[in-house]
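#onboarding

Welcome to the new folks! Below is a worked example of what a typical request in this channel looks like: someone posts a single protein sequence, and someone else replies with the predicted structure as tokens. Don't worry about understanding the tokens yet, we'll cover that in week two.

Example request:
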Amino acid sequence: MECAGCGQRRGWISTCVAYGADVPDDARFCPWCIADGTAHATFGAFFNDVDGGTADDARDEVVSRTPGFVTWQDWGWPTHCGDVGVYRGQPTGQQLRANPDALSALLADLRQWEWGRDDAYVEDFIEGLGGSAVAYLFTCRHCGIPLVTWDQD
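Example response:
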């Protein structure tokens, strides 16, 4: 497939969603045009939202030069210590249980919701991670604290 940014067929095309009023509906970008800002400069494309409390240059890198991933709900890229978190992947329930700090971060976020205070439901949620529920693990690049967000269809 041809990249909408550079017009080349490089063998790799990002499947992430590119947002922006000037982004053609069927536009797909190669990783190079996302990373070097060509997609953003040419079409005003942006790929992620970022939580507040971070420097403009770090926010801009994640918003306009970092491919996003498909989610069911909109959410902001986590921040900590005035910087954006480093994406580490989508852990399973078993992997979260092996990382008590990450599990605690997820539980703290879930507990803000009424259903998240139901221990049996939370256990089922964690056990089902990777299906219709997904956790996203990030770490703070400064202090190393795990930052966990989640999504569910």
